[in-house]
Amino acid sequence: MPELPEVETTVRGLDPVLRGQRLVLIEPRRADLRRPIPPDLRQRMTGATVTGLGRRAKYGLIETDRGDTLIFHLGMSGRWRLEPDEIGAHDHLLIETASGRRLTLNDPRRFGSLDLVPTDSLAAFPPFGKLGPEPLGPDFTAPYLAAAFAGRSGPVKSLLLDQHIVAGLGNIYVCEALHQARIAPGTAGRRIRPARLERLVSAVREIIAAAIEAGGSSLRDYAQPDGELGYFFKRWRAYGREGESCGCGGRIRRRVDSGRSTFYCPRCQR
Ligand SMILES: [Zn+2]
């Protein structure tokens, strides 16, 4: 499932293909994904020039000179395909640029979304309304986390997954960050002392940045015909490693709460 680093990598991969390009063809191939695709998408975007790309939480942004921004979410299984050999049943949006590049948004499970929003009212796009700060941005700090945790009960793991507190963190990255910061996932967030919150903020930033870096180094693959944007392998220290040994001499354990796995080391995470 694509998380923030995969979306960031995808946006960086799309940037050289789309930025400055006029879109000569934009063709939705069905009426909906998780929610309806705007029926006027083709009309509003055909002939527009892409002026910039960006990301907010797990949403990718493609801005045009018509004052609109196309917002995509990759859901559980979405990815962009460059120069596909053929258009398949799961290619739900087809784009062609004036320089002849073709790409499709492919999403077999269709939990993704496509929205078109006036760029000057992006902040009013409902999914963006209550998002917390970006984990790599300047507002995600230990004092911020202390204040955000103060009024809430609950374990630190659930609090970090709460998009109102910090935007775009998913299960894998939260497990990894807590492991690196040596904080037990069940610790009450509001009881964590400032020095440990500093460690947690650093761990989140380092892990997200390293994942984006790893994605960036695999970007060359995307330039190949039929290359796929959106996923890369990562060797995790805790996630998916139940029963394996932790660097501290303990063993990684797995716990399942409401269908979600938590991987942690009971020895070094306290
Ligand atoms: Zn350990």
SS elements, strand count = 11
Question: Which ions, cofactors or small ligands are bound in this entry?
Answer: zinc ion
Summarize the amount of helix as a percent range.
Answer: 25-40%
How are the strands of the largest sheet arranged?
1-6-7-5-9
Largest pleated sheet? 5 strands, antiparallel
User: Helix tally?
Assistant: 7
Q: Approximately what portion of the residues adopt beta-strand conformation? A: 15-25%
Mean pLDDT: 91
From the N-terminal CA to the C-terminal CA, the straight-line distance is: 28 Å
The radius of gyration computed from the alpha-carbon positions, rounded to a whole number of angstroms, is 20 Å
Q: What are the key terms here?
A:
27% helix, single chain, 270 residues, 4-stranded antiparallel β-sheet, 5-stranded antiparallel β-sheet, alpha+beta, binds zinc ion
Question: How would you explain this protein's 3D organization?
Answer:
Helix 1 crosses helix 7 and helix 6 packs across helix 7 (194-217). Residues 219-227 have low confidence and may be disordered. The longest helix is centred in the last third of the chain and has 24 residues, at 194-217. Strand 3 and strand 4 (68-73) form a beta hairpin. With 270 residues, this protein is an alpha+beta fold. It has helices spanning 4-18, 41-45, 126-129, 142-150, 156-161, 171-181, 194-217; strands at 23-28, 50-56, 59-64, 68-73, 79-82, 91-97, 102-106, 113-118, 228-229, 253-257, 260-264. The protein is elongated. A five-stranded antiparallel beta sheet has the order 1-6-7-5-9. Residues 246, 248, 250, 265, 267-268 line the site of zinc ion.
